[in-house]
Amino acid sequence: MKVADPCGCFPTGRHYPGIAHLLKVRAVGVASELDASAPWIDHPIAFLDVETTGRNAAVDRLVEVAVVIGLRGDVVARHSWLVNPGRPIPAESTAVHGIRDEDVADKPAFPEIVGELLATLAGAIPAAYNAVFDRGFLLAELERAGVRPENPPPAMRREVDWIDPLTFARELYKHEGSRALGDMAALLGIELVNAHRATDDAEAALRVLYALAKDSRVPRAYGSFIQEQRRLLRMQDEARARWRRPS
């Protein structure tokens, strides 16, 4: 499904000014409360990053979650929580993010911070770098906590796509050796001091997104951006499938 044409045109290409004002822009994957025809940079963007006990959202748990809010190219708010996962943090995970059992021993469990977290995500476009990882952990934790609010934020709704700068980095910088967050930040001149800590990673990823937005190949309208991201994801998934196919 494609973005509806916001110009008031029908498939014939003819313009019908008398009824154009009655037509609403609708696009697959966008948050319905946000104008799909408006520049996505003018909408609040909630950039989420998580640190965990491991890589499997089905069995591992959050130990840190951060949300950095961006609007019109600037960071306007930062929120972070250390979370008691209710289990020991494996040494190999601590080696990545530096969070130890004693750092979270007196911290709240996820159900205790979920209200604040969802309030922070309300009304904003959800986003994450390599979003499938962070989104998977968030939704898994929400499911385990039995959280089903009457008006869930866009980040909690499965029909809403998350913005993922990694998708565009893979396309715009396809000849670079790595498009990992730290490498993209360095390439674009963005400071990332405490890599693999949630707030620092979320803010760096947001700034990478804003830097990528300066490229003319990145759509400006929210709905068009999501549709282009979907197209690129399909192409990238198909390319990976070909690489894995035995010759």
Automatic annotation (TrEMBL):
- Alphabetically ordered keywords of this record: Exonuclease, Hydrolase, Nuclease
* Record GO cellular component, one term: cytosol
The answer, when asked if Nuclease is one of the entry's keywords, is yes
The Exonuclease domain covers 44-218
Q: Which NCBIfam families match?
A: dnaq (TIGR00573)
| Biological role stated in the UniProt entry | DNA polymerase III is a complex, multichain enzyme responsible for most of the replicative synthesis in bacteria. The epsilon subunit contain the editing function and is a proofreading 3'-5' exonuclease.
Protein name per the record: 3'-5' exonuclease
